[in-house]
Every structure is written in C-alpha cells, then in structure tokens.
Amino acid sequence: MDQGSISPHVLIFPFPIQGNINSMLKLAELLCLADIQVTFLNCHYPHRRLLSYSNIQARFSRYPGFRFETISDGLPMEHPRTAEQFLDIVDGVKTTTAPLFMEMMISWCRSASDTRSPLTCIIADGLMSFAIDVANEVGLPVIIFRPISACSFWAYFSLPQLIEAGEVPFRGGDMDRLVASVPGMEGFLRRRHLPSSGRVNDVAYPGLQHLMKIFRQAQRAHSLVINTFDDLEGPVLSQIHDHYPRTYAIGPLHAHLKSKLASETSTSQSSNSFRKEDKSCIPWLDRQPPKSVIYVSFGSLAIITKDELGEFWHGLVNSGNRFLWVIRPDALVGKDEERQTPAELLEGTKDRGYVVGWAPQEEVLKHPAVGGFLTHGGWNSTLESIVEGLPMICWPYFADQQINSRFVSHVWKLGMDMKDSCDRVTVEKMRPRESRGDVGERGGEGKSFKGTPDVQGSKMLLRRPLPRTVEMSDIFELIG
C-alpha cells in the first residue's frame, strides 16, 4: 500500500524506567494533539505502576487514536529496579524484550487487523536500539528518541575516542584531571563529569561496551530526536549534527505540552508517576513565604546511604532554610532496619521542613514558595528547573547526571555542582533565590561551549516565548 495514503500511526517504545517513560508519554500526548495515532508499548512493570499511581488512563482516554500495549522486560515484578540494579534492566531488555518485540512487530505488520491501522513509524528510546533492526525487518522508518541532554549524548558518543586516547576507562585516581577527547568540551570537562560507566577498570566492562554499541546502532536510524532546545545546547547540537544530520531538538517537551494543553483550555495534568504522589506538600507550600523553600529530590533511581542522609539532614536543618524533602521508601541502602528513614530525622524537620515519599514535582517547582532545587541532576529535573527559573545545587549520582551538573554550574551558570561530595557544610550554605531571574542569552558561537556568558544563577533561558516548534512539525512530517 502507498504509505502516503495511510493515516499516520506511530509506535512509541520507551526504556522501562520512570524518567524515560515520562518524557515519551509527553511526546505521545503531543502527537495525539496533532491527530496522529499512537500505540505506546510499555513493559509490564512500569505500566502496572502507572495505572496504580498516575492518571494516564483517564488522560489518554480523550484521544481515540491512542492505545497502550505491553511487553515483558524479563524481570520479576518484585525486582527493586533502582540504580544499583540498572544493568539487570538492560540485560532483561536485551535478552527478553528484544526477541519478543521482533515477534510482535512481524505479527502486527504482516497480519491484517480490524482494530489497529498499519504502523507507519517507530519512535524508540535510544536504549532500545535493537528496534532499528526490527524496523528494518518490517520495512518501517525508525526514529531514535533520547530523553537525555545533548551534552551527555555527545559525551557518550565520544566514548570510542576517549578509550583510544586512554582517558577511559579509569578507576579512582585524579578525578579532576581534564579530558581532551570530547570535541568542544576541552578545557572544562574533567574525569568526574564523564558518564559513570567510564569509572571501571576494564574496557571490556559490559556496561561500557553496551553504551558504545547502542550509539553506533543509532546512526542507522532515520532520525534522532533529543528532548532539549537550541537556545540551551546549540553548540553541542551543532557537533551532533555532523554525525547525525537528521537531528531534531524538540524540547522542553513538558513545557510544550503544558502550553498546548493550555491553548486547548484542557484541565489535563500530566502525571506520569510510578509512585503515589503525596500532595499534602502543596498546602504546606501555600503557607510558606515566596521563594523561601529549597526543594530536595534525587529522582526515581538514585540511592543514598544512612550517612549521606544524615549529612543532608544536618546541612538542611543548620542552614535555617525551609525545605521540602522527597525521601523515597526505596532510596536508603543497607540492611532492612537501616532502610527506614530515622524517626529523629523526621522529628527534626518539623520546624522548617516537610518530608514526603514522593511529590508532584512539576507542580512543586512552579509553586511561588519554592526558590531553589537540590537535585540529582537528572535531565527531566534539570529542564523542569530551568523552565521555572530555579537555581540548582546538583548532587549527581550516575549515568548522565555528572555532565549535566557540570553544564549547570560551569556553562549555563544556573547553579552549583557538589560533584561527588556529600557534606553538610555545602548544603548549609544553600540559599533560595530572591527572584526567579531574567532571561539569560545563549552565548558561544560555532562549536565551542566555553563562551557562554554568566547568567547569574537562576537567570532563566525560557522567560521569552517557548523555543520554536518547527522541528516538532518536522517530526510530524516524518511520522506521516
């Protein structure tokens, strides 16, 4: 059948962790609002969590062309799925999900269906790069979606050059040694800011080899889309374009979706949480003075020791700041009795603090009482903070978070990087901003990232109108 006569129907296939699924659900909703049919293929575990704790079923029921499908990730439901077990998720997807996906696509694309129109395109998470071979097998174009920053994408892409230069792998040693093999980042990128998979003894480490493989495979995709925007990452996007000519920056997706829903007078809220959100924190924020609260959250995967928890607690309490602190029930490591948030910590926060197990983060960050964000530096959190004009203090844990934190502190000048340290003195010195700042202009032309001007802490890159959406329109055309 002539592809031009088929109504556009895209399959969206995320890697089964909350941050990635969150971004791709926002992309799915934007496509639905453009009257494009969407099938969202989710793994069983995250889908069950979404049905339990988010409003996705009600929210997407308004789109007649949308449907969910599920697939196994090969792990038992009781698997903890925190950052410590991240490679378990990777292995499960590789050994179980990949062959099941091939079978599913062959069946869908070669068998007629009265309830499902033919697929015209696959948008796959970059960590699901096996989808490229599957798409080729069934004759569909595939777009690779990366829910990470362009700067982290570029560092990952540069891993072969880093290995060739002997700069990766490394284990310990001088973590502040400059690295020279990530083009455009010479002079300010240090060992500690490289992807955490480089902190190993052996180049044969499976996590390192897997990353290099998926970035090689991604070059075979029809297009690459990244949840970022040119005003923020223009120079590094220019580097990426040299290797992926059809690269589209379509972010920040959460802000585009919010704007689109507002223009349609929709009351829909985009909750894509795997956990029950404790909304009691919102009335508490309502009672606080403007810009007086530090919001503290280390994301959906990071884990923390009891000693680290104590350092943050002492720092927050001694700072004199008001704070809203998210402590996930599964965030503490140790024996069972050590995994409970200490009662004395909870008691000690009552004067100026509020602790929840999970929070409605986008709602919290836009609340007028919030004046700063102590974060792990995950990309969704970073974008959400930038959009709201909030300064950040970054305590990166793993993956892309180290380089995000470096760019927040050194390039974009939107906060500070705690690096690998966790000490109460640094936390104690935090101060919420008096105002959510003015516009910071992007600097640095060409392909150097070092010329970006100081935009003074929380000076915002998005107070002006949202980044142009022409590249999102390009994606609509690719899908159609």
From TrEMBL:
Keyword Glycoprotein recorded: no
Region (Disordered): 430-455
Keyword Magnesium: no
Bias-annotated ranges (Basic and acidic residues): 430-448
EC number: 2.4.1.-
One GO MF term attached to the UniProt entry: UDP-glucosyltransferase activity
Catalytically driven reaction(s): 7-deoxyloganetate + UDP-alpha-D-glucose = 7-deoxyloganate + UDP + H(+)
Keywords on record: Glycosyltransferase, Transferase
InterPro entries per the UniProt record, alphabetical: UDP_glucos_trans, UDP_glycos_trans_CS
Family as reported in the entry's similarity comment: Belongs to the UDP-glycosyltransferase family.
Name of the featured protein: Glycosyltransferase
Organism: Vitis vinifera (Grape)
